[in-house]
Amino acid sequence: MRSRFSAFALGLDDYIQQSWHPDTCPQGPFTEAGTRWTQLQVQQASESGDEGQVTFAATFHAEDGWHQLIEQSRFVKQADGWKYLDGQPQWLRLQPGRNDACPCGSGSKFKKCCA
Ligand SMILES: [Zn+2]
After folding, report:
1. C-alpha angle 94/32/36, rounded to 5°?
2. What is the pLDDT of residues 21-67, one digit of tens each?
3. Average pLDDT score over the chain
4. Which of 37, 41, 78, 109 lies at a C-alpha separation of 20 to 30 Å from 1?
5. CA of 4 to the centre of ligand 1 (A)
6. Distance (Å, rounded) from C-alpha 104 to C-alpha 98?
7. Mean pLDDT of 3-13
8. 2-112: what fold?
């Protein structure tokens, strides 16, 4: 899960495809040049046998501002590792206040950072 987030953050389309279950993998490209992924919070993770579930919130910046993807993902274990099967995504638009923590993850207030 974290490695997939890193792959999105770094634009590693090959890794994203390789870690996606072949039955559900769409056509790439998977990453967009104008999108910057900044933070990942894993909220819940569980595993039973060859099936895993991860709920996460990922923050990113696109041309039109800050967004958050909250998703409950399903993973399946195969011979060469865990594969992303599918998920239920929720896309939120973030509207950080001037005194809120900056969504880039710097730890600074928004007004002193990316505002
Ligand atoms: Zn910032």
Report:
1. 45
2. 999 999 999 998 899 999 999 999 999 999 999 999 999 999 999 99
3. 95
4. 109
5. 23
6. 13
7. 93
8. Nuclear Transport Factor 2; Chain: A, (3.10.450)
**pLDDT reported for residue 27:** 94
Distance 113 CA to ligand 1 centre (A): 4
State in Å: Cα 110 to ligand 1 middle: 6
How far CA 8 is from CA of 16, 21, 27, in Å, comes to 7, 16, 15
CA 79 to chain centre: 24
Q: Is the distance from CB of 107 to CB of 95 less than 8 angstroms?
A: no
Domain ranges (residues) in the chain: 2-112
What does the pLDDT read at residue 59? 97
How much distance in Å is there from the Cα of 101 to the middle of ligand 1?
8
Annotate 25-66 with DSSP letters as a single string.
Answer: ---S----TT-EEEEEEEEEEEEETTEEEEEEEEEEEETTEE
